Amino acid sequence: MHETVEYAAADGFLSTVWLLVAIPLASAAILLLLGKRADKWGHWLGVGSIAVSFVLGLAYFFQLRGLDNKSVELTLFDYIQVGSLHVDFGLLFDPLSAVFVLLITGVGSLIHLYAVGYMDHDPGRRKFFAYFNLFAAAMLLLVLGNNFVMLYFGWEGVGLASYLLIAFWYERPAAATAGKKAFLMNRVGDAGFAIAIFLMFQQLGSVNYADVFNGVGSLSSGVVLVMGLLLLLGATGKSGQFPLQAWLPDAMEGPTPVSALIHAATMVTAGVYLIARSNPIFSANLTLQTVVVSVGALTLLIGAIIGCAKDDIKRVLAWSTVSQIGYMFLGVGLGGGAYALAIIHLLAHGFFKAGLFLGAGSVMHGMNDQTDIRRFGGLWRYMRVTWATFGLAWLAIIGIPPLSGYFTKEPIIAAAFERDGWTAWLFGMAALLGAAITAFYMTRLFVLTFHGPKRWTEDIEHPHESPAIMTAPLVLLAVGSVAAGWLMSTSVVDWLTPVLGDHSGEEAHGVISHGLITALSIVVTVLGAGLGYALYRGGTAMQEQPAGPIVTAARRNLYADAFNEAVFEKPGIFLTRALVFLDNRGIDGLVNGLAAAVGGGSSRLRRLQTGFVRSYAMSMLTGALLVVAAFLALQLGWLA
Amino acid sequence: MNATNPEWYLILAAVLFTIGAVGVLIRRNAIVLFMCIELMLNAANLALVTFSRINGNLDGQIMAFFVMVVAAAEVVVGLAIIMSIFRTRRSASVDEANLLKY
């Protein structure tokens, strides 16, 4: 079992860790409140605030390394105090938070810098940076909270920022719809997450990480299962995993830096963070772990298969993100030592996927915002920096040693083969197959974009390389993609031990030996990439593709959208219409009918007011006679 | 027959009251209506005085005085209203003064 979880109180320099959240938040507030007055310099404030957060994050990180227990807790103020519910506005800075802080602020700074160039011609650039800073603040709060309510606070904050940024070009109907779709699908997951928090409070009387993780052992396995499944629902919503994966590719309607930062490197990995952070809950129930592994394995295949059939450069990358996060879910579901593997894959993915998206943005920048890879080709000659950095990120994601993807993805595949019995084969082969398909579609993307014959539209005469402010982040991210994997696979796993447990001494018992898995994963990767190169180097993509049932299904997102529409949307609309009918005819009918009855009755009763004195006199006389008759009857009856 | 049976007075009062009530119901001239109301009031007075006599106390007579005072006040106000109606409409028919209705 887990040892008791406890965190030391922060003091000294580390008690200012709240600045990490406050600085981007203040910058966002300034940019939004000053309005047009900040148009000239607003983007530099946006970049500066996140860069300052990064420097601070580095300083905190080195401070934390010097501590013995590697975690500090900081309570800023009482946030909620109702009855026995007590929630502090508390922060927790521990190894897991620290790596996320460095990822968010580090990659975030580069993407902010890139966005200065990318959004140069956009009239809404200041607003864009305000939302971007808001996102950074919310994401930092998400990873820095010391209880589930803080996590939820940040969770909703990034959801809001994501919605605002997907629908940033709201005058385009597709972008507005995509924003709404993302927001609504996230609501489904968030509802599950919220109920999980309610359940924690109801069962354990607290929502603090320390109390919940220490109390998990005392809960029945059924409660743990339900709690974990609800948390998983939240995680699948935010991370674009099955069954809530459909929003993420549509989110590519936002500006490319948004896709890179929010929908590739950071926000969509929040689900992985949630599960890794809640590892005492997920490790406590085997069924739960199997469900997480299944979600991961299924999603990584779904993402990879659909990625093969898309022609939009950003959508291919989006489905690739879905697929790679599937690997991370596979990792956190396997539990034990694989938690740390999922986190390092997340970090490596943050680098190379951000690099890929920014590279895609750079290509679009030079090609009049064309996104169809069938309309590219031969670009390597015109965009050398983009080509080189994109190429390195491509080699990293498909897992060619010694780039980062190899060091982070291959151990997850190996870990999948270490499960018990037939599930080892099932999940191991799924992960291996995913790696092969990843290599195929990423190679297709790379070759169609940068090599082969030119298939440009007529309006493009001379594509140009992006300005230095955009290529500099590309180079830095490419360096990260190359170097990070080896660095992280050794040191970060040790660094995360206080949070995710020490598994270094455990003997791995795979159904096939680790060496063979390594060899196999390299072989399938090379095969997939080779197939992709052989098929697409000639630029044959413009010809009519043989669209069999599988290709058609993949182009339609494996009918997930159609399924949602048929099963949820149509009955939902029907239900709404039925309720409107019931409301209009039933409830309004009742109220209106009553009013009409009273109104009609009164207008008939009004006819008694004839205006003739004698009729009034008659009614008075009749009344008087009735009174007299009543008296008489009483009197006589009493006498009798 | 010096000591007349007081019940005869009650019967007379009832007859007078009925004449007044019927008059109010069937006549249209406001002045006649008014006189019929006076007839009813005085029928009531007669009954009150008779009861006073039968019971041997003064309660009924005192009530009769109150009725007379009220009737006098009512005549003053009522005749003034009838006068002003007549001035505007050149008619004292109560059926023509029928604007206050549904």
Automatic annotation (TrEMBL), chain A:
It is found in: Endomembrane system; Membrane. One of its GO terms (molecular function) is NADH dehydrogenase activity. Pfam families: Proton_antipo_M (PF00361), Proton_antipo_N (PF00662). Gene3D superfamilies: 1.20.5.2700. It is a multi-pass membrane protein. GO terms for cellular component: endomembrane system; membrane. Residues 146-431 form the NADH:quinone oxidoreductase/Mrp antiporter transmembrane domain. It comes from the Bacteria. The chain crosses the membrane at residues 12-34, 41-62, 96-116, 128-145, 151-170, 191-210, 216-237, 258-276, 288-309, 316-336, 342-364, 385-404, 424-447, 468-488, 508-536, 616-638. Keywords: Membrane, Transmembrane, Transmembrane helix. GO terms for biological process: ATP synthesis coupled electron transport; electron transport coupled proton transport. Residues 79-129 form the NADH-Ubiquinone oxidoreductase (complex I) chain 5 N-terminal domain. This is NADH-quinone oxidoreductase subunit L. It comes from Phytohabitans flavus. The gene is nuoL.
TrEMBL record, chain B:
It is a multi-pass membrane protein. HAMAP family: NDH1_NuoK (MF_01456). One of its GO terms (biological process) is ATP synthesis coupled electron transport. It comes from Phytohabitans flavus. NDH-1 is composed of 14 different subunits. Subunits NuoA, H, J, K, L, M, N constitute the membrane sector of the complex. GO terms for molecular function: NADH dehydrogenase (quinone) (non-electrogenic) activity; quinone binding. The keyword Translocase applies. It is found in: Cell membrane; Membrane. It comes from the Bacteria. Its EC number is 7.1.1.-. Its main location: membrane. GO terms for cellular component: NADH dehydrogenase complex; plasma membrane. It catalyses: a quinone + NADH + 5 H(+)(in) = a quinol + NAD(+) + 4 H(+)(out). The keyword Transmembrane helix applies. The chain crosses the membrane at residues 6-26, 31-51, 63-86. Gene3D superfamilies: 1.10.287.3510. Belongs to the complex I subunit 4L family. The gene is nuoK. This is NADH-quinone oxidoreductase subunit K. Keywords: Cell membrane, Membrane, NAD, Quinone, Translocase, Transmembrane, Transmembrane helix, Transport. NDH-1 shuttles electrons from NADH, via FMN and iron-sulfur (Fe-S) centers, to quinones in the respiratory chain. The immediate electron acceptor for the enzyme in this species is believed to be a menaquinone. Couples the redox reaction to proton translocation (for every two electrons transferred, four hydrogen ions are translocated across the cytoplasmic membrane), and thus conserves the redox energy in a proton gradient.
